[in-house]
Amino acid sequence: METMIQILARELGQKEEHVKNVVQLLDEGNTVPFIARYRKEMHGTMDDQLIRTLADRLAYLRSLEEKRADILASIEAQDKLTDELQAAIMQAQTLAALDDLYRPYRPKRRTRASIAREKGLQPLSEALLAARSPIPTAEELAAPYVDPEKEVATAEEALAGACDIIAENISDDASLRGRLRGLIHRTGVLHTAGLDDEDAVYAMYREFSEPVRKLQSHRVLAINRGEKEGKLKVTLTVDDAEAMVNLNRAVLHPKNPFGELLRATTADSWSRLLFPSLERELRNELTDAASEQAIKTFALNLRPLLLQPPIKNRVTLGFDPAYRTGCKLAVVDETGKVLETAVIYPTPPHKKIEDAKKTLKRLCDRHHISCIAIGNGTASKESEIFVAEFIREYGGALSYMVVSEAGASVYSASKLGAEEFPEFDVSLRSAVSIARRLQDPLAELVKIDPKAIGVGQYQHDMPQARLSEALDGVVEDCVSSVGVDLNTASPALLSRVAGVTGAVSKNIAAYREQNGRFESRRQLLKVKGLGPKAYEQCAGFLRVPESANPLDRTAVHPESYKAAETLLTLCGYTVQDAAAGKLGELTARVRELGRENAAERCGVGVPTLDDIVSELQKPGRDPRDELPPPLLRSDVLDLNDLKPGMQLTGTVRNVADFGAFVDIGVHQDGLVHISQCCNKFIRHPSEVLTVGDIVNVVVLSVDPKTHRISLSIKQASTPKQ
To answer: Which DSSP category does 606 fall into?
Structure first.
């Protein structure tokens, strides 16, 4: 029998030694980012996503082993554990298979079958199945079991009770359930019927049917939601005839004289017990698989959203649109510090456009604003038109971008928002958040529950704990890959660093306030609650730009400082050369020494050596700088301006199972169906598109009434950036 390590190695295509090392590292309390970045020699350079997949699968296998042990103990306590049953339990590879094997031995609530057993009818059920011709009639066979004291008044009642026992035993048979489960997967068809002809949301599901083996995950979640809201009736049909053939073949002996009675019993077992149970299992299985796919899609979207390139060194105006209460403005400097706030009323019902322009001009002149971030919520369309008109009149290099404000209101009303800006009301905090989202998406979005960021599908319909776990992992990986400035990062950002808890992040900020800025990474050990283990996990991800030691400004881990210094000496450099950026020949000199030789002399593995070389050459490198910059605009299109065949440039805002939504500057995102994403076959749009991609698209169709825009990337003249 395969061990957990062997199973994981086979499933993930990794060496058993590497898998074993990762399991050990996880069990020792190491974080995934730390393992992925600083223990490469131990795991063959697995990335963070693969390590998280391994950790999830490891948890499942361990829960499987725990349940296996519990089941064996329970059945043994009942004195019913046979060698054959034990072997079957030991070989079971899924929780469902274990449930099937344990089903006959699991304590049950009172059923028709259990009541029949209490009446002493178990022997009669066995006699009916074992009977061979010639034999007395069924009534004669049942006559000895008639006992008014046991509430068995007639032979017919005895036979009915015995058949109930047979029906339940059939439904508890593990091998039969397995075969019938396969039959449902193969022949099952899910049908939906609309209960509200006026409901447009579920219009496509008013008369819908599809084989379960072809049912896509987003449809499963949509159907589940419609059923929960009372808008859809959902039914499952299967090949009942084939199911009965399977059941009768398993239960009926050719020479059994009670064929008609037993066939009626198998039909009852199928319709009353087996099919409803397997249908529930199937629906749950479809939902679980759809939820996992939706969580995976959310995580895939969240990563590039968080890693969108920042707009650096630009004074930015955050513009939070509104109607009656006015549009809230917040000017923030290059570091995100709030310089000034204001409220203008360019939108209905006030439409004080000229006054609003004067206020905007005053702010731009006073603070030299070069970029405006407009929230995409209520009144966003009118605000965008107003800003575009103002830019045309104002001139200069001023530009704007519509920013998703998903979760901004959550942050504004949160305890964190109140602590950060106690003097501002909720709407002004939103304007600040919108501006900072453009300046540094990662630093601002970490303040918000990832579920509220709005780049998923049906996120409220899936297991919230599992969703939070997956998304928190993505945030942690993103923060760790970029690195955090120890002297400027907010507690919210610090708390997302591997190894730093919420309490410790606040202690770091408090230490800064009391003692001034950090001068080195080693000072972290003076922070309350941050011990050697936490220091080991987080130190490499925290940067100290002001440190006298240039290695504190890099992603080189303190445990590798000696190796880095040795490498510099071997290559004829000093630490001061690294600080001055005079390592242009470092890669060539390492090549001359030989990577393996250099690694051995430095006392590290080749992967760690490669990372040290990369960091020394580009200290403080931000991986986001290598991505295409955000698409800024100075003018706006109207939906009515769009015509089929027009070519436009847009930004991918969301990727779903069925396609991608692209912002083309008309307030309403257009849909690129999966069939229009590229010129080759793909199973999911995420294979070719990610959130934040700048793409060229062709307009296929526009429906102003429904505000639906259909786009194509594959028909555009140039590919995505």
So the answer is: H
Cis link prior to 349 (omega < 30° from 0)? yes
Are residue 131 and residue 280 in the same domain, yes or no? yes
In percent, the amount of the chain with pLDDT more than 90 equals 66
Which helix (H) or strand (E) element contains residue 548? none
Q: Which of 389, 415, 439 is the last residue of a domain?
A: 439
Q: Judge whether 441 and 303 are in contact, CB under 8 Å.
A: no
* pLDDT surpasses 80 at 629: no
Same domain, 36 and 150: no
Domain assignment present for 228: yes
Distances (CA, A) of 330 to 320, 369, 381, 396: 9, 11, 19, 20
Q: Quickly state the pLDDT bin for 415 (edges 50, 70, 90).
A: confident
Shared domain for 16 and 97, answered yes or no, is yes
Upstream peptide bond of 619 is cis (omega within 30 degrees of 0): no
Query: How far is C-alpha 266 from the geometric centre of its chain's CA atoms?
Result: 43
Q: Taking a C-beta distance cutoff of 8 angstroms, is the pair 407, 452 a contact? A: yes
pLDDT value, residue 484: 93
**How many C-beta atoms surround the C-beta of residue 585 within 10 A?**
13
**Boundary (domain end) residue, out of 378, 404, 439:** 439
Give the number of domains in the chain.
5
| 302 occurs within a structural domain | no
Q: At 480, is the secondary structure helix, strand, or coil?
A: helix
Rounding to the nearest 10 degrees, give the CA dihedral for residues 249, 255, 261, 267: 0
Q: Are 333 and 349 in contact (CB under 8 A)?
A: no
Of 249, 246, 248, 280, nearest to 265 (Cα)? 248
CA atoms 19, 22, 26, 28: torsion sign = positive
Same domain, 136 and 269: yes
- CATH number of the CATH domain containing 562: 1.10.150.310
Range of weakest confidence among 96-110, 322-336, 454-468, 674-688:
454-468
Which CATH number does the domain housing residue 219 bear? 1.10.3500.10
**Mean pLDDT value across residues 238-244:** 94
Q: In terms of C-beta density within 10 A (0-12 exposed, 13-18 middle, 19 or more buried), how is residue 215 classed?
A: middle
Residue 674 near residue 636 (C-beta atoms within 8 A):
no
Q: Are 23 and 31 in contact (CB under 8 A)?
A: no
The tens digit of pLDDT for each residue in 156-174 reads 999 999 999 999 999 999 9
CB 439 within 8 A of CB 332: yes
Which residues constitute the domain of residue 323? Answer: 316-439
Residue 472 contacts residue 447 (beta carbons within 8 Å): no
- Mean pLDDT lowest among 165-174, 329-338, 581-590: 581-590
Same domain, residue pair 604 and 649: no
pLDDT at 563: 96
| Residue 447, in any domain of the structure | no
Residues paired with residue 320 on neighbouring β-strands, in sequence order = 328
Asked if pLDDT for residue 665 goes beyond 80, the answer is no
306 is a domain residue: no
Which tokens hold the place of 380? Answer: 């966003």
Contact between residue 447 and residue 416 where contact means Cβ atoms under 8 Å apart: yes
Among 270, 214, 208, CA closest to 244: 270
Say if residue 266 is in the same domain as residue 335.
no
Residues 6+ apart with CB under 8 A from 184: 212, 236, 238, 278, 279, 282
